[in-house]
Amino acid sequence: MKQRMRKKSPGFSLIELIVVIVILGVLATAISSFIKFATQIYSETTARDQLVSSARFAIERLNRDIRNALPNSLRLTNSEQCLEFTPIIESTIYTDIPVAPEVAKNKISVIRFDKTFKSTWSVIVYPLTPNDVYPVAPSNSDKVHAVASIDETGDEWVITLVAEVLFSEDSPTQRLYFINESETVEYCLQNNSLLRNGILMAEDIYNTSPFEILAATLQRNAMVQMHFRFEKNNETVTFNNEIQVLNVP
User: Fold this and answer.
1) Can you tell me the distance from the alpha carbon of 88 to that of 65, in angstroms, rounded to the nearest whole number?
2) Going by C-beta distance under 8 Å and a sequence separation of 6 or more, which residues neighbour residue 157?
3) How confident is the model over 47-104, as pLDDT tens digits?
4) Cys-Cys crosslink for 164: which of 42, 104, 144, 214, Cβ 3.0 to 4.6 Å?
5) At which of 179, 212, 236 does a domain end?
6) Domain boundaries, position 221
7) Distance (Å, rounded) from C-alpha 95 to C-alpha 39?
């Protein structure tokens, strides 16, 4: 019997193995680069979206607050890193207030309004500067006066003040505002974060002098300019916004 010749199974040569390894290495590099760039694009897009969303939220809240600010109550504090102002609770038209050289009294008459009176309210007429709103001593103010009660009878209501007063001057539009002297709003840029009365509104802000106040003129109302530069994961978004203070004294 003839022994059958066994066929040897063909194997891989060293060159073939090296070629396969090189090809696999190239493919792995290409795939890893693709995954890396895709991940980087996703990360950058997410960071940019977060910055834009954070900025829009903060600026929209600022817009709402400033549009309800008492005229000429806006001021910069803390080395111009903070913007402070007094919000308006309610406003109305007055029909009678004591103005020099009249006799001082503790009652004034106004047109009726909607909100319910609270004991923390004060009235203010014709504020022209922040010093009228934030006097060094409350007793020095001739424009801000605490309210004791309101007689809500008929279309013309009578406001009784805590003390007899004499306003320094009339408002050209006879406008009277109600405020709470102890409740001011303050936006501050601290440690790259924007805070509203200590509550976090936005993060990752890397610039100084975020606020600028343009005083009112005969042609326009007061303006507040905001400058914010948001930075995160090598992404930068800059917001320059201008808000008009709609209320007039």
Assistant:
1) 10
2) 109, 110, 111, 112, 113, 150, 151
3) 677 777 878 888 899 999 999 999 999 999 998 899 999 999 999 999 999 998 899 9
4) 104
5) 179
6) 47-84+184-244
7) 67
- pLDDT tens, residue by residue, 159-192: 999 999 999 889 999 999 999 988 999 999 999 9
Domain boundary among 158, 179, 200: 179
Tokens 């696999």: give the residue.
Answer: 24
**Same domain (yes/no): 76, 190:** yes
As a whole number of angstroms, the distance between CA 240 and CA 48 comes to 17
**Encoded amino acid at 114, one letter:** D
Is residue 92 located within the same domain as residue 174? yes
Number of Cβ within 10 Å of residue 132's Cβ equals 21
